[in-house]
Amino acid sequence: MTEKILSAQPFTNPMLYVPKAMFFTKGKAVHKDSLTSFDLNIVSVSSIKPPKCKIISLQEGRNYLVPGQVVFVIIARQSTNEPNRLIAASVGLANPAEEGQYGYLSEHHSTGETAQKAGDYAEDMAMEMLATTMGLPNDSSLAWDERQEQWRLSGKIYKTQNFTQSAEGHKDGLWTTVLSAAVLLI
User: Fold this and answer.
1) So what's the pLDDT on residue 45?
2) What is the SS3 assignment for the chain?
3) Which residues of the chain have pLDDT under 70?
């Protein structure tokens, strides 16, 4: 099944994905949420889940990686060397029910939050940011349906989920790091 998903561009030559150029940029943006203020500075598709992009298992995905290959990731990470400090890293996904539409991924890094709280926040942020990319940041139709466990925006249905890792800082003050990532395969 995976071969059908990714057969459009097989990984026959990893050198095709080695960067040949780079450029520098800088910017400033202001928003109530840290991640949105960051995203307003960069390419607007930075955290877009492409239309028809299938979610596959970690084990399956590893089969498509080659050492030295350039991969695109949406990554959340948090570290602490404070004993017993609760940390979390979460990637949230807002995914439309219609397969041909794009979705949105968010990153949330926190201290003092449980995995549940961090994950819920990442999901909410992904949905709000998707609405922003669609030009609907203040759309009054954006609503969470508790019973159906889904979002509605402008008459369309969206599902959210999160991938969260949390941990307590090591008791002896060693660095503890948590990470969550969405790896995009080309």
Assistant:
1) 45
2) CHHHHHCCCCCCCHHHHCCCCCCCCCCCCCCCCHHHHHHCCCCCCCCEECCCCCCCCHHHHHCCCCCCCCCEEEEEEEEECCCCCEEEEEEEEEEECCCCCCEEEEEEEEECCCHHHHHHHHHHHHHHHHHHHCCCCCCCCCEEECCCCEEEECCEEEEEEEEEEEEECCCCCCCEEEEEEEEECC
3) 1-30, 34-46, 137-139
